[in-house]
Amino acid sequence: MAPALPDGDPAPDDGALPASVRDGAAARAFGVYLHVPFCTVRCGYCDFNTYTATELGGGASQDAYAATALAEVGLAAHVLDAAGLPARAVSTVFVGGGTPTVLPVDDLARLLGGVRDTWGLTPDAEVTTEANPDSVTPASLAALAAAGFTRVSFGMQSAVPHVLATLERTHDPRRIPDVVRWARDAGLAVSLDLIYGTPGESLDDWRASVETALATGVDHVSAYALVVEQGTRMAVQVRRGELALPDADDQAAKYELADDLLTAAGLAWYEVSNWARTPADACRHNLAYWRGDDWWGVGPGAHSHVGGVRWWNVKHPRAYADRLARGLSPAAGREVVDGESAALERLMLGVRTAHGLPVADLSPDARRAVAGLVADGLVDGRAALARPTADDPVGPRVLLTRRGRLLADAVVRALAG
Question: What whole-number distance in Å separates Cα of residue 159 and Cα of residue 196?
Answer without folding.
Answer: 11
